[in-house]
Structure formats: structure tokens, C-alpha cells
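sorry for the late reply, my laptop died twice this morning and i had to redo everyting from scratch. anyway the thing you sent over, i finally got around to it. pasting the sequence first so we're on the same page, its 377 residues, then the predicted structure underneath. double check i copied it right bc i was rushing
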Amino acid sequence: SLSAQGGLVYLAGMWTLSTGSVTQAWSLVFGLLAAVFLVVGAYHFFALPKPASDVATARGQNPAREFFAVFAHFLRKPDILTALAMLLLYRLAESQALKLLSPFMLDQREVGGLGLTTQQVGIVYGTVGIIALTVGGLVGGWIISLYGLKRMLWPMILAMHAPIVAFLLLAMFQPTSLWIIGSALAVEQFGYGFGFTAYMLFMMMIADGPHKTAHYAICTGFMALGMMLPGMAAGWIEDQIGYVNFFTWVLVCTSPSFIVITRLKIPPEFGKKAPEPATYHDTSAQAGATFPAPTLRTAHFGRTHSTSENLLKSSSNDATASPASTAVAANHASPKSTLAVRTRASAASSRPSCSISNAPLRTKPSNNAAASGRGIL
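ok and here's the structure:
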């Protein structure tokens, strides 16, 4: 996108000025683009990996029957109607705005446009805008990995639709400064990239399960349909009402997407990055051996809590232990925290009391544990 909408558009503007022919300039651009695709395609043919698992799963079967079987399986997914509404309506507003953005920037100011040249469009939209779009997508993916799709869906759809106001303000005031226009486009494109990440994750969630590759392709088909149908009417609508009223209409078209996301059922943990399991080193048995940290589940006021420690019960018959409190460290404890069990002998009671300490405690397993009455935890 950066080269196609930025560099090549700028190049087309330069060749238009040098040759005096728009047709010849764009013919040269498309010829250059075709040559680049041929070279890159040939390189990928030989360079891309060919995994052994990349084989057909429906070999020897009727392809048409298999296609309809996969499609029917997709339509039998839970809440599929709500999912299809999401795929078709999430970008209802953007699908119309994007179709008219380039004409809006190129049209003369007398008819409501910004009056930019082709080279200027290549800079503010094809370069600045695409960079902001890419950064927004990266930030969106990072945010979802921290908080999950369910929690971030509303902020991301707001970030995607709210910056459309920038188009409306540009149409109302028609600024001449390229810095102002570029900044407005950068904000809108960043929000679009940020919000579109949620849409991509939602498609991955819907496609999960058997035939996930085919089902994801079906999702992208509905995504394209949701862009194509509203975009077909965008030009006619603008001709009837003008750019200011058109971008006002685009803002109104964001309403269906806000309604449909209230009906979605998304697992709270979907999209979050799975935490890496804690490890510990057993220096008493094998030097350098790494094992996953055991899990401790403790109950506190009726609630169950998980930690990375493994709590074993010490002997309840430890009444003969030393009166001094004994700290017993878990042989399989995580280096981040240590469970210290202190046993206090008492003539009235032999029940142990437990406390949790976050201070690192390093001990070696005792060979005389059984004799001393101290259980290794």
C-alpha cells in the first residue's frame, strides 16, 4: 500500500507533468507495477517454504460437494446471523467514505473538494496516511494481546468511526495547508487501522474450528461484500447531496455497527496473549533441567485463587518438632515467590499455621527430612 498509494501515485503525477498526458503517465505506472509483480512473484515461488502438511484434505472427493459441505458447516456455526451482520455492517461507514476520499481530495474547491494535485495526494494519503494506518494496526494488535478482544471492542470501534469527523471538518472548512490535511488524514487512518484490528480478530474467532482456512476465506468474502455494496452507491449519494452532507451521512451510517456489537458473544480471554509458563531449575537432581512450575489453588472467602506454587500438606503429627519455627521451602517452587510454612509445636495444639512470603528462599532438599519431621514441600 505504501508504494502503490504513495510512491506510484506521486510518480504518476510527475510523469503527467513531464509527458503532458495522463493516459501515458498511468500506463507507465501500471507497466512498472506489472514488472514488479512478476519479479516478486517469481522470487516467492522459489523462496517461500513448502511444508509437508500443506496438502489437500478433500483429495478424491467431489470438489463441488466438498465446497458446499464446508459452506454449510460455516452457516451452522452458533449465532451465525449475528456474525454475518457484524461482517457486513462493521465497515458500512468506512466503505462509503473510502470510495470518495480520493475524489474529494482531487476535486476543485468550487465543487466542494480540496483541490490537491496527484503528487500531493500521493504524499498526504498514500504515504502519511498509510504509515498511520500501519502503526494503528500494530498498536491495535498489541492492545488486544494485553486486554482481549471482548474488553477492547468498544474502544476500537469508537477509534475507527470517530475520526470520520475529520473528513466532515475538511469538507466544511476546505483548508489549503497540506500540513492540516495530512494531519487530519493521519488521525483518521490511525483510528481506522486501530479499529480494523478488532474486525480481523473477530473473523479469526468465527473461522476457528474445522476447515478454519476455508471459513476464514468465507469471512473475507463477506467482508468484501460489505465494502462493495455500500461503495457502489457512494458516488451517486455524493452527487445528490454534496461532500458536507455526504460525510454527515457517513457518520449516521456508523450506527448499525454500534448496534450489532451489542449482540456479539466473545469469550473474555479471546485474543489475549497466553502467558509463558513459569519454569524452575532443579539443581538437586539434574543441573540445568527446566520444568514447568506447579500450580497452587487456594480458597479465600469462598473464592479460588491460582498461584505458581505447589502447596503440599505437612505432617499433622509434627508435635515433636523444635519449638523454633521452621521455614520449609518448596522443592518445585517458582523463583518469583516462595511458600514458607512455619510449624509451631504447642502442648495445646499440634495444628500448623501457614503464611505466604514473597521473599526468595533458596533451600536444598534435606536427606533427613523424614527423621527430622520436616516434610519437603
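Strands lie at 279-281, 290-292, 296-300, 303-307, 327-328, 338-342, 353-357.
thats about all i looked at so far, will dig more tmrw
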